[in-house]
Design brief:
Layout: H1 2-26, E1 50-53, H2 57-73, E2 79-83, H3 86-96, E3 101-104, H4 110-120, E4 124-128, H5 134-142, E5 147-152, H6 156-164, H7 166-173, E6 178-181, H8 184-192, E7 200-202, H9 216-227, E8 233-239, H10 241-257, E9 262-267, H11 273-282, E10 287-289, E11 302-304, H12 311-315, E12 320-323, H13 336-340, E13 345-347, H14 355-363, E14 367-369, H15 373-385, H16 387-403, H17 407-423
Parallel strand pairs: 1-2, 1-4, 2-3, 4-5, 5-6, 6-7, 8-9, 8-12, 9-11, 10-11, 12-13, 13-14
Helix pairs in contact: 2-3, 2-17, 4-5, 5-7, 10-15
Length: 424
C-alpha cells in the first residue's frame, strides 16, 4: 500500500509544484525555499532534539503553549519546528525567533523524507492535529524515533475520506507511538480509521490552553480609545472571500441604525489583503488600510488589517467577533480566541474544523451560529443593541475556556514518558 501511495504521489508532484507556483503569484513566499520541500537544507548545529510539526499559522498558535512548556521542561534540548506554509513559518519566527530551528516539512516522498531525517536527527517527533503522512511515519519508525500526534482531531469531511483509505491510514497510524485526541469523539474516529486502541488517549484541546498576553486587553482598550469609545465595533476575523460579501452587505445595512459603527476586517491570507479592501470599497464602504498607518477616523467604516499576527489585539478591541471561514465552506477558524477575551462570538454554518468547540460555545450561550448573511445581520443588530447580552455571552465564553484548560499538562505527560523512554 505504501509503495502504491508513493508511486501516485510521484505522479502528482508536477501538479503540486504547479499549485505552489500559482500560490506564489499571489504570495511570493511560496516561490522560495523549494529545496527544503525535498529535504535539502543546512542541518541544525545540534542534534538529538525534539521535532514539532505544525502545518500553518493556526497550528503554530495552538502549539505555542506546548512548545514553551517543552522549552521549560527540557531547557538543554534543541527544538526543531517545521511548517508547510509561509504564514506558519513567519509565525514561528515571530513567536520564537532564533530559540528554535525552523525548516519547511518536505513532501512525503521516500527520498525527501530520508534526507529530512538524516539532516535533522530528532530524538522525538511531535505532530500537531492530524497530519497523516505514511512515508514520514514509516521513516521515523525505521529509525526508532518515537512519534506522537497531539491535539489530534478528525472532522466529518476528513473522517469519510480516511475511511475510504483505511488500509493506508491504518498502516501509517500503526507506526505512531501515541495519539493524544482532542475529544472522545475524535478518539473513536481515530480508532475507526486504524489507530491501535492502546495508543489513543483523550487529552483535550490545546487551544483552550493558549496563553494570551496579560497586556492584550489593555492594548484593546487603547485601540478603542483611539477609535472613539462610543463606536460599536464588529471584527470579522480570518475571513475568506465568500465570507466577506455577506458581511459587507449586512454591515452596510447596519450603518442605517448604527451610523458610527466600525467594521474591522482581518483577511485570513496575506495575498488577499488588497482584494479584500477592493471588495469593501465596491460594497460602498469607506475603507482605510492598517499598512497606511491610517488613524481610522470617524469617517472610516471598514478598517482592513493588512498585516499578519494582529488579530488578537483587534478581537480585544471589539464588541462583537465574527470568525470567518464559516459562511464559506472552509470549516471555520479558531473561535476560542475571541471567547477567551470575553467577546460574544458569531459563526456561520460551516464550522467542521472546530465542531466540538463551537457546539460547546453555543450550548454555553457564548456564541451564535447563523445560516446566511441575512441571519448574520439580524444577530449582529441585536448584539449591537443589547450590551447586557454581549456582556453575558462574553463572560460565558471566558468561563468555558477556563474550564477546558489542562490539555498541555496532560499532553506533556505523554511526551515526557516517550522522551524518558528514548533517553533510557
Amino acid at each position: 500500500m505504501r509503495s502504491v501511495y508513493s508511486f501516485l504521489l510521484y505522479l502528482l508532484m508536477p501538479l503540486v509544484l504547479l499549485y505552489l507556483f500559482i500560490r506564489g503569484l499571489r504570495s511570493r513566499e511560496y516561490l522560495s525555499r523549494w529545496s527544503e520541500r525535498f529535504g535539502y537544507f543546512d542541518p541544525p548545529a545540534l542534534g538529538d532534539g525534539i521535532w514539532i510539526h505544525a502545518v500553518s499559522m493556526g497550528e503554530v498558535n495552538a502549539a505555542s503553549t506546548l512548545i514553551r512548556a517543552l522549552q521549560k521542561q527540557y531547557p538543554d534540548t534543541p527544538l526543531y519546528i517545521t511548517t508547510f506554509t509561509p504564514t506558519g513559518s513567519s509565525r514561528v519566527r515571530e513567536l520564537f525567533g532564533d530559540a528554535v530551528f525552523h525548516v519547511y516539512l518536505p513532501f512525503d516522498l521516500p527520498g525527501s523524507v530520508n534526507r529530512f531525517f538524516e539532516r535533522l536527527r530528532p530524538r522525538l517527533a511531535i505532530i500537531l492535529e492530524t497530519e497523516i503522512w505514511p512515508n514520514l511515519f514509516h521513516a521515523a519508525a525505521c529509525r526508532d524515533i518515537p512519534s506522537v500526534i497531539v491535539n489530534a482531531r478528525i472532522s466529518d469531511h476528513s473522517f469519510d475520506r480516511y475511511l475510504r483509505f483505511r488500509k493506508l491510514t491504518s498502516l501509517a497510524l500503526g507506526q505512531v507511538s501515541r495519539i493524544a485526541a482532542q475529544s472522545e469523539n475524535d478518539a473513536q474516529r481515530l480508532k475507526a480509521i486504524g489507530a491501535p486502541e492502546q495508543t489513543v488517549t483523550m487529552t483535550g484541546n490545546l487551544k483552550f490552553d493558549t496563553s494570551l498576553p496579560p497586556s492584550l486587553l489593555e492594548l484593546g482598550d487603547s485601540i478603542r480609545l483611539a477609535w472613539g469609545t462610543h463606536r460599536l465595533v464588529l471584527v470579522a476575523g480570518s475571513t475568506h472571500e465568500n465570507d466577506e460579501g455577506p458581511v459587507f452587505k449586512a454591515f452596510k445595512h447596519l450603518l442605517d441604525d448604527f451610523p458610527d459603527a466600525l467594521l474591522v476586517l482581518v483577511p485570513r491570507h496575506p495575498e488577499r489583503f488588497g482584494r479584500a479592501a477592493q471588495l469593501a470599497r465596491a460594497a460602498g464602504l469607506r475603507v482605510a488600510l492598517r499598512s497606511e498607518n491610517a488613524s481610522c477616523g470617524a469617517e472610516i467604516q471598514c478598517f482592513v488589517i493588512d498585516a499578519m499576527g494582529e488579530l488578537l489585539r483587534y478581537y480585544a478591541a471589539c464588541d462583537v467577533a465574527f470568525v470567518g471561514g464559516s459562511l464559506e465552506s472552509i470549516g471555520g477558524h479558531n473561535v476560542l480566541e475571541p471567547a477567551a477575551l470575553s467577546r460574544p462570538v458569531v459563526v456561520g454554518p460551516h464550522t467542521f474544523n472546530f465542531a466540538d468547540i463551537t457546539k460547546q460555545l453555543i450550548e454555553a450561550e457564548a456564541a451564535v451560529q447563523v445560516q446566511d448573511g441575512e441571519e448574520f445581520e439580524e444577530v449582529v443588530r441585536r448584539l449591537f443593541a443589547e450590551p447586557e447580552t454581549r456582556d453575558r455571552m462574553g463572560r460565558a465564553g471566558s468561563e468555558l475556556v477556563r474550564s477546558g484548560q489542562g490539555a498541555v499538562k496532560r499532553t506533556l505527560a505523554i511526551i515526557d514518558k516517550l522522551f524518558i523512554r528514548e533517553a533510557g
